[in-house]
Amino acid sequence: MPFFVTKDRKYYQAEDLDVQLVVMGGGIGLRALIGGNGEFAATGEPAVLSAHLSGARLQILFTSYYKPLLWLYSDPKIKSIAELKGKKIGVSGIGAATDTLMRDILKKRGIEGGREVAMLALGSPEARFIALKTGNVHPAVLPEGFKFVADEAGLHELVSFLNEDVFLLSGSV
For a tag site, which of 9, 18, 99, 166 has the least CB within 10 Å? Predict the structure, then answer.
């Protein structure tokens, strides 16, 4: 969204910049940047830090958000985090931000993720949403683009990570 607003208001043009948006999923944009096929990439900090620790010469210019744009959605029958004991939570990957932050939120509520609640690495937001809709997981961590889809599907928002005491830089260039 910020790209389109900036372009519509001709801010790039005022700075004599010819900017084109190229959409790439996952870590492809970051790999393209490292490979010299781009000058900037908007990506998540964990991927940038991991690449930097592996020797990639990258620099974060700015970050848009310090709170994670993530939500935990469940079947409408599940009304609280306490009801998740013995259930399966869909996350993007074990050790990924969705997993780490979810475990932290559970721990603050007295539940041990991975022991009292199973954490399932499902990959993409699409896969997590489908697993939730088909009952293969009980709640799933979903990003901002899926919040509206989940609401329209009648799913229950258990947790907004924006309201939690967690920190995750995101939307970086």
Answer: 18
